[in-house]
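Ticket opened by: R.M.
Priority: normal
Category: complex prediction / small molecule

The reporter submitted a protein together with FE3-S4 cluster and asked that the result be attached to this ticket for the collaborator who will pick it up next week. Submitted input follows.
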Amino acid sequence: MKDIYQDVDVTAPAPESEPMRQHYFIAKNAQIIRSESEAAGHTLTACVKTFGCQMNERDSEKLRGILEAMGCVLTENEEADLVIYNTCTVRENANLKVYGRLGYLGGLKKKNPHMKIILCGCMMQEPDTVEKIRKSYSYVDLVFGTHNIWKFAELIHDMYESRGLIIDIWKDTRTTIEQLPTQRTYPFKSGVNIMYGCDNFCTYCIVPYVRGRERSRTPSDILREVSKLASEGVVEVMLLGQNVNSYGKNLPDPVSFADLLREVEKIDGIERIRFMTSHPKDLSEDLIDVMASSSKICPHLHLPLQSGSTRLLKKMNRHYTKESYLDLCRRLYDSVPDLSLTTDLIVGFPGETEEDLADTLDVVRQVQFDSAFTFIYSKRTGTPAASMPDQIPEEIVKDRFDRLLKLVQETGAARSGRWQGRTMPVLAERVNDHDSSLITGRTAQNMIVHFPADPSVIGRILPVSMDECKGFYYFGTAVEK
Ligand code: SAH
Ligand code: SF4
Ligand code: F3S
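Result attached by the on-call engineer:
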């Protein structure tokens, strides 16, 4: 990838068309970074910190790819010369975290004249946030949003060419730019965006406002990317979108998600296919069939329920009922052997009653999720739910949350024990954080297992005996083939 930037003529004006224009700015920035590094007495370091979901994780890999191509040394340490926060705004506490960290960054910047602070991601799509940064955090150097992230190289160039805060936020976009560098966190697994944005407008959710309208990448772009990843040694891909089940509907030649999976499955070298997130309302019979017959698609489905109450689901604009969700889970369990189901739940949605909570608890008991993320409802300005009557007082929500969490943990722990004694294929992912004689890996169901092995097995899928369940993870032993 690096070579293409070396051939760029940086004395010529910037090309108009993409991605050549960004390649040009990468090459131009490489010169800037070189001279800044000379002035600083060391090669400039860059730290990208990610808040939020897998979508943001993937975007951060793209930012790192561009920074690396420009000649920066990547680091995890926030005491770096370029610090980039890729932000989330799905719940209020995601925002608070960023403001908290920004104060700390301001202190670091006083000590390092070469430091640049850059903010991007979902939070920046909210006008109030940008106003607050302009007023109270004026030491920030660059702010951009989710729709123009592919312009990162050009924005960095603008930042170094001018003084003062640069802000570039787009309201929406139809564009998706291909062929920019990325720096993958893992050599053996990778996220792959298959679509951007969301059109569902669940009434509590800010994502459609900050990520814009749903746009699917073409199957050929996706398949090209996955084939390239496979050729680089990637064995597991995670197909990413806010609602992968509606993939392809708006393409000029419509394609279903199930059809896309059939094509991805054909790519040699890819051994595991995951995807996220599935919206229950769009999960087709065809998808269940593909999952049931595939040897590569992992038997794990993250299927956000949000609430078990049909009455609340209607107010949330989710387009399914308690009964249809239960029925869907039944059909999935019947068709896909050894399936693991996980979910997201929200407590304290406006107007929630004890009966509504009882419905949610009931679904949790019936479905037996392997695990669930439980969230306290967070009011997001601009969403329909924010102006609904009967916002629930904090003490009541806290009590309901505790009860739900307790049930989720009990059922999850009991459910997770079902693999004990089985030998299962495990992708070895990393050396264990606490004990370096252990390797940490995942089964296809996404269950974590720690087992003694040499780090040379990392990146391989090997049979592991699931010896002892510890609730949400296992201790195991690798089994010789
Ligand atoms: N597109 C995915 C989820 C994206 S956001 C889907 O539809 O399932 C991830 C999770 O955050 C959601 O599933 C929901 O449980 C939670 N969430 C979203 N908005 C929220 C809010 N305002 N308050 C609390 N939790 C919220
Ligand atoms: Fe938010 Fe609903 Fe879209 Fe998920 S499907 S991102 S919860 S609006
Ligand atoms: Fe957060 Fe944006 Fe993801 S708001 S959850 S980072 S799409």
